[in-house]
Amino acid sequence: MTECIARQPIFDAKLRIYGYELLYRSNEAMPMNVFTPCEPDQATSSVLVNSMFLFGIEKLTHGKLAFVNFSRSMLVSDVMSFLPEKQIVVEVLETVEPDALTLSACERLKAAGYKIVLDDFVYNQRMEPLIDIADIIKIDFLTSPAEYCESITKQLRRNKNIVFLAEKVETYEQYHQAVSWGYTLFQGYFFCKPLLLDTRDIQGSKLIYFRLLKELNDPDVGIKRIEEIIQKDLALSYKILKYINSAAHGLAAKISSIKQAVTMLGNEKLSKFVTIVLLKGLGQDKPTELVVTALIRGRFAELIAAATGLKVQSSEAFLIGMFSLMEAILDQPMDKILGGLPLDGAISGALQRQPGKLTSILETVIAYEQGDWAKYAIFCQAIELNHASAKKLYLEAVSWACGFE
Fold first, then answer.
1. Residue where a domain stops, chosen among 192, 217, 242
2. For 203-222, what is each residue's pLDDT tens digit?
3. 163: Cβ–Cβ under 8 A, 6 or more apart, which residues?
4. Which of 18, 232, 370, 371 has the most CB within a 10 Å radius?
5. pLDDT for 4-60, tens place per residue?
6. Which structural domain range is residue 171 located in?
7. Which of 162, 192, 222 represents a domain boundary (last residue)?
């Protein structure tokens, strides 16, 4: 059996990371690579074992809280005894009935310091005992009527300690609406969507980065030209020299000129570094997680390309993954962005979702990121990606991206 584990960010009202829900699926060898359903206990056990022991939960969540789904049998067992209460948040599945054993287990967990979450909550009077224990209540904004999403916070406000989490929030409009209704935690991919199209211009200083990226993608460009562009931006020059002289490169002698740095890095590494600096600069007024997600997409796409026989195109895959969130970062449509940044035709085509291998890699990355396992399986088959290696590549991408925060 092969497994997939991903994470979905949970924000506070200021769009800072509060924690991550860990998403899990298993896949047994079946025709067409269709993912098989798994029991909640098996899913939860695999999430805990993989995140805690095989990879390290702190690396997976970067020290933030980890929200994990628990079935009734997992709640009443002793599985929690080895889990750190300051890192794990217990999500009680909506299928769990509030019987005596369940309530007793939740009370013990809460007394031990764990936060208790009621997942996909739909009010019913029999749930009152669990409501009294809960720290967080999750409301599904995708399946619940707006009237219910608004009224439930007022209805249960009697317990002043309850925090309301709006999940499956897909637009900034929904996010702002949820804030006005009293929600203070938010989950969903609204942060990956543009706020307002065609309203934001690229600052003049950032145009240097775009110009440099254009030149770096020109196979005939010379070192002298690259050096001239970099030297026009003091901050970029400083960052490149600091990067090349960092301990990671283990150089015996200090690099003191841009020409030396450009020569040593080469166009491919320099292009990657400039892309990271560019996106972090452009995303300064956006949620930090947006840039982190772009970093993960870029590295994950690069690793997938190498693992599927496209090593020569791994640098293009990196750019595609990173730039796939440029609409949300710049609040502009992709065609306008690409018009100001001439890129290789294959890169531009993938960013506009034109059919091709690089587009399939990008779709694989996004499907995995969002836990859309059915779609992920389809694209895995299309690019001939081995399921067993995908999780390892994803976790490597997460670890790499967190190092740039």
1. 192
2. 556 667 777 776 776 667 77
3. 135, 136, 137, 184, 185
4. 18
5. 788 999 999 999 999 999 887 765 433 333 444 455 555 555 555 555 554 567 778
6. 2-192
7. 192
